[in-house]
Amino acid sequence: MKPDRDLTTTVPSLELPVNSEEVPAANAHTWKVLRKWNRGFFRFRWQAFLPGKNFSERRFSITEAALLLMVAYITSRGFGVVRQSIFNAMFGAGPEANAYYAASRLPDTLFNLIAGGALTHAFIPTFVSYEKEHGKAEAWRLTSLLFNVLFVLLTVLVLLGEIFAPAFVNNLLVPGYPASEQALTTTLTRILLLQPLILGLSTIATAVLTSKHQFVLPALSIAFYNIALILGLVVSVYIPGIGIYGPTIGVLVASIFQGAIQVPGLLKEGAHYSFIWDLKHQGLRDIMRLLGPNALAIGLVYISFIVDTAVTSYLPDQASLAALHNAQMLVALLLSLLAQALSQAILPQMSLQAASRRFVRLRQTVIKVIVGSLVLSIPATIFLCLIGRPLIRILFQHGAFTSHVSDLTFMALLGFCVLLPGQIVDELLVRGFYALKDARTPLFTNALSLGLHCGMIFLGLTVLTGQNAILAIPFATCGAATLEAILLGWLLFARLRREIKQDASMIRLYRRRKAQALATSEALSN
Predict the structure, then answer these.
(1) What is the pLDDT of residue 364?
(2) How far apart, in whole angstroms, are the C-alpha atoms of residue 408 and residue 318?
(3) Nearest Cα to 244, choosing from 255, 253, 252, 235?
(4) Burial of 151 (0-12, 13-18, 19+ CB in 10 A)
(5) Are 99 and 111 in contact (CB under 8 A)?
(6) How many CB atoms lie within 10 A of CB 324?
(7) CA-CA distance, 343 to 219, in Å (whole number)?
(8) Is 318 helix (H, G, I), strand (E, B) or coil?
(9) Average pLDDT over residues 162-176
């Protein structure tokens, strides 16, 4: 998608005035061009989704990309519901299910700490600006260097995880579980620790294709991820002796498949691997400068997940962890559609606007995205609350998943839905800071959010008793995220208000009008 870049080279007075005191009233030509830019920036062409030659290489507008990713997330979550229904029917909320849910915490933390959202948010802005300044060849060298460094780093972390898994599981993750469940959790954790290494390397491919506004293959990788997980459950059905190890191995197969499906897209983009090891490379330093705070910020989020799991292990109802997991899966559908899909589609364009110092456009983009997400998320959340109970019974209440677990899951779902729109806005606002290559502010707000999260949990546990104690965790999760969103919004718009004075288009507009005023003055004097 190139209309935004092309217009800046041909129309210097594209930006709207910030207010009447900063810039004189915009002329009709400025409004006309702005409307043209908005149509290109948020355009939607249904023809873009028709199959045809080079479909996987098409570039999409933000609206088109967001819709494509939403379809992918819906498809993925649909397969996820099928997978979870089979899993619930087989394992319910018993010891094997609890061990499986808990075992994913450490691998997910390592992946997101180094190679998940942290790497994506650090790599895309750097890759976009580096390719613009140094060319494609150097950008691919930087990509190869990052691949090599990430492979070594993840290998070391996985080995350390394998060594310290028993101590972590027994003392931090599920200290309230019996010894037999702790042992099973440790075994599953050690198997799943291979996932960050496999999936982490494929994240680079996703980030590269996303930075080039190519979303088809990343979308397909999302959509088909759960197919391999379903196959793992099918294996467990037909070979009962495998048990919980079937879906566990399925996670590793799904990770391999998710990376492999994106390789053709990289090859068509002209990607080539080169062995390079230069820790002093400026591009790598730029990525690491963003990755460090990003990783710490996401690490704080996953610390809260570990705290949730540890607290849940002490709750009187043993089905609490399974109920929370199933409720979060339903809530994750809205988060995927209205936060993850939209933010993945918008981040490359926001990064380009920030790199080109077009801060007025960046502010307009942020406002439109936030308003649009709120307009969609509030009614969607209310609708989820209304259909939650029958939906849970239809989808999950089969086999070992009893009516009691369904009721507990619905209670947790209501807790998550109370402040879910705030959590969605929080996800989107963070991307604005990443586009500005500012990872320290989200780190600061995440640290505050973690403190609020823990405080709200223990406050909730003192107020809520018995079966209602499970509500302490969803209330803390969404409540802390909403307060963080309010703080992030205030900080982001204050930052953009300052940066607008250095906006490239605004500077050209000032100069043009100053020249016009000078010419008019000279003409009148003559």
Answers:
(1) 83
(2) 11
(3) 235
(4) middle
(5) no
(6) 25
(7) 14
(8) coil
(9) 90
- Tokens 């292990």 belong to 313
Quote the Cα angle for 421-426-432, to 5°.
135
Task: Annotate 387-440 with DSSP letters as a single string.
Answer: HHHHHHHHHH-STT--HHHHHHHHHHHHHHHTTHHHHHHHHHHHHHHHHTT--H
Please write the tens of the pLDDT for every residue from 87-108: 888 888 788 888 998 898 888 8
Report pLDDT digits (tens) over 342-385: 776 677 777 777 877 787 888 888 888 888 888 888 888 899 88
Provide the residue count of the chain: 526
Least confident span in 55-64, 321-330, 341-350: 55-64
Cβ count near 179 (within 10 Å): 8
Rounded-to-integer distance, Cα 429 and Cα 179, Å:
43
Q: How far is CA 514 from the centre of its chain?
A: 44
Contact status, residue 326 vs residue 409, Cβ threshold 8 Å: yes
From the list 141, 151, 162, 181, the residue with the least C-alpha distance to 273 is 141
Residue 127, both tokens? 């890759």
